[in-house]
Automatic annotation (TrEMBL):
Domain of life assignment: Bacteria
Renumbered residue ranges of the record's region Disordered: 195-219
Stored Pfam families: WHD_NrtR (PF21906)
Stated name of the protein: NrtR DNA-binding winged helix domain-containing protein
Taxonomic path: Bacteria, Bacillati, Actinomycetota, Actinomycetes, Micrococcales
Domain NrtR DNA-binding winged helix residues, every copy: 155-209
Length: 219
């Protein structure tokens, strides 16, 4: 390794961007903030000697009003031409949050929610820089997790019916899922609570929960 001082080498600026999803009555949506370049993923440049995790939490708090979360690292995006302002490497992060987490930001007008179909669609919401690539990678990761595990980010209450679980997973997938196939795949990862729903929405249904420790392995 060269003994030359670090100042002899060109260095990129370092940033973080976070793709934060939530599920509403319109389906799966992504959190966007208004920047000079239009709607974008919440992000910021990393301060001197600041850890990536701290920069992520700072950007979510200051730009989106989101606190109390632990986004996971998604991927490094290092195309030298990804940002027209200069050489910027970003470490993208990912989270899926309950609606209550974004409520304050929505009330204050600091964020907006966009259905993922509007971001994916031609002529839909246009994101700056290489945020479309970050969005696509994050969406793929979320949908893969929900295809394999029951509610990996814990959006449902601690106990739920299989109908509620399937409805959530269909919102994330953006399509209907085969009932029998879905239930076979998910039931073996669940345990019953021994209780039933109150029957206000049709016949009482058995309630399930995710075994202790299982959810934390996937979210």
């Amino acid at each position: 390794m060269s003994g030359a001082p670090l100042t002899d080498f060109p260095r990129p600026s370092l940033a973080v961007d976070t793709a934060t999803f939530t599920v509403t009555g319109r389906g799966l949506e992504i959190v966007l903030v208004k920047e000079d370049v239009g709607f974008a993923l919440p992000g910021t440049f990393v301060h001197e000697r600041e850890r990536l995790h701290a920069a992520v939490l700072r950007s979510l708090r200051s730009k989106a009003g989101i606190t109390g979360r632990e986004p996971q690292q998604l991927k490094v995006f290092d195309d030298p031409d990804r940002d027209p302002r200069g050489w910027v490497v970003t470490v993208a992060h990912l989270d899926v949050v309950p609606g209550s987490v974004v409520a304050e930001g929505l009330r204050g007008g600091s964020i907006t929610l966009a259905p993922v179909g509007e971001v994916e669609a031609e002529g839909g919401v246009r994101l700056p820089y290489d945020h479309p690539r970050v969005f696509v990678e994050a969406l793929r990761r979320v949908r893969e997790a929900y295809a394999e595990y029951p509610d990996p980010w814990g959006l449902l209450p601690s106990s739920f019916s299989l109908g509620d679980l399937q409805s959530l997973h269909e919102s994330v997938a953006g399509e209907d899922l085969p009932r029998d196939t879905f239930r076979r795949a998910m039931k073996r990862q669940l345990e019953t609570t021994g209780e039933l729903t109150d029957g206000r929405r049709g016949r009482p249904s058995r309630l399930y929960r995710i075994p202790a420790g299982a959810r934390s392995r996937h979210s």
